[in-house]
Amino acid sequence: MTGVEVKVEGLTKSFGPANIWSDVTLTLPAGEVSVLLGPSGTGKSVFLKTLIGLLKPEKGSIMIHGTDLVRCNESTLYEIRKLFGVLFQDGALFGSMNLYDNIAFPLREHTRKSETQIRDIVFEKMELVGLRGDENKLPGEISGGMKKRAGLARALVLEPEILLFDEPDSGLDPVRTAYLNQTIIDLNAQTDSTCLIVTHDINTAQTVPGNIGLLYRKHLAMFGPREQLLTSEEPVVAQFLNGRRQGPIGMSEEKDSAQAEREMAEAGELEGLPPLKPQLAASPGMPDRQAVHRRRERVEAMMHELPEPTQRAIRESYDRAPEPMVTGPRHTLAEDPPTDVYPRIRD
Ligand SMILES: Nc1ncnc2c1ncn2[C@@H]1O[C@H](COP(=O)(O)OP(=O)(O)O)[C@@H](O)[C@H]1O
Ligand SMILES: [Mg+2]
User: Fold this and answer.
1) What is the pLDDT of residues 219-273, one digit of tens each?
2) Distance 91 CA to ligand 1 centre (A)
3) Count of other CB atoms within 10 angstroms of residue 208
4) CB–CB of 222/49 below 8 Å?
5) Is there a contact between 33 and 82 (Cβ–Cβ < 8 Å)?
6) Name one Pfam family in it (predicted).
7) Atom of ligand 1 nearest to the CA of 55
8) Buried b (16+ CB within 10 A) or exposed e, 38-51
9) What whole-number distance in Å separates Cα of residue 12 and Cα of residue 28?
10) Predicted TM-score of the model (pTM)
11) Residue 97: CB atoms within 10 Å
């Protein structure tokens, strides 16, 4: 299986009179991992829901395999939706179903597989996310982190070509977040699926994706190779990456620019951008990530259009071999990882 390109052009979404974002144009390159950043309430979740056809935009197109999701009929949309695996913010599990049935649900709904075949797949995915043994638990009986992992297992059972993650790391401790990030990279190595991760976690943005976008002030402020955003001197980017108060982003909504400028002046010299971190590599034993090679070719071809600091950062990254997070025994997302892998921590 190889990933598929998702080409979004001129997308605009409003709810009644309230415009959420306008003219969003980006291409998720086939099989690559991309991250979407943005202050809370800028419409990142709305964007993911629009991508899978749950919400209708007023303008623009979303092309997948030559079909425009915005304009196709219901039955085509139903077929195209099967290409997607989505991990919603809270896992979106059915409260009255145990974890096994929740994870088996898409297989029973969309395939003609026998219960024996379904069991093999469900157990495999539950093993992958560290939930084996928890089949009979109800969503109400488990922690937020376990719900996310169950949601991830459910997102994976149909072997999706496109994986969308809505803040997979919110509510997870830093160790679990690191494991989850490693799992995403390992999945990408194994399946070459096109991934889009919405996150607030700076470390995730710095180490996981090949491409980063930023939704800001109702527009896609930026979308490109990770080095482009991570070396950008835009105040909003520096504020985001450093997680600081001074800058264009306010608490309740985006500040007016006069106030932002006043604060920047009062704060004086602010720290610049954090240093670029090496990218996470797949765990030992995983297949070579095809997307890494395709991305390198793609970025080389667009190099001359990129700002000088971005070009420098990209060239430097070639000399730094990416490293997996763990090099010991197979990593785990389970609640109680073996103590030789990581100290015992619960979520
Ligand atoms: N179904 C809906 N109907 C009306 N407004 C909505 C709906 N879904 C989201 N919104 C609004 O869209 C805006 C963006 O929401 P959301 O995508 O959840 O932001 P983010 O995920 O970036 O934090 C919010 O103001 C929210 O209230
Ligand atoms: Mg959201």
Assistant:
1) 998 899 999 988 887 777 777 777 666 666 665 555 666 666 666 666 655 566 6
2) 18
3) 26
4) no
5) no
6) ABC_tran
7) 1
8) bbeebbbbbbbbbb
9) 17
10) 0.87
11) 14
Whether residue 41 has its Cβ less than 6 Å from ligand 1 = yes
Q: Which two tokens stand for residue 80?
A: 């195209």
Query: 274 with 313: CB under 8 angstroms?
Result: no
Q: Which residues on neighbouring strands pair with residue 85, listed in sequence order? A: 163
Residue 108 C-alpha from the chain's centroid = 26
pLDDT at 345: 35
Indicate which atom in ligand 1 lies nearest the CA of residue 49: 17
Render pLDDT for 289-343 as a digit per residue (tens, 0 to 9): 999 999 999 999 999 999 998 999 898 888 776 666 654 444 556 555 443 333 3
Q: Which residues surround ligand 2, an ion (CB under 5 A)?
A: 45
Contact status, residue 52 vs residue 81, Cβ threshold 8 Å: yes
Q: Which of 7, 6, 23 is nearest to 58 (CA)?
A: 23
42 Cβ closer than 6 Å to some ligand 1 atom: yes
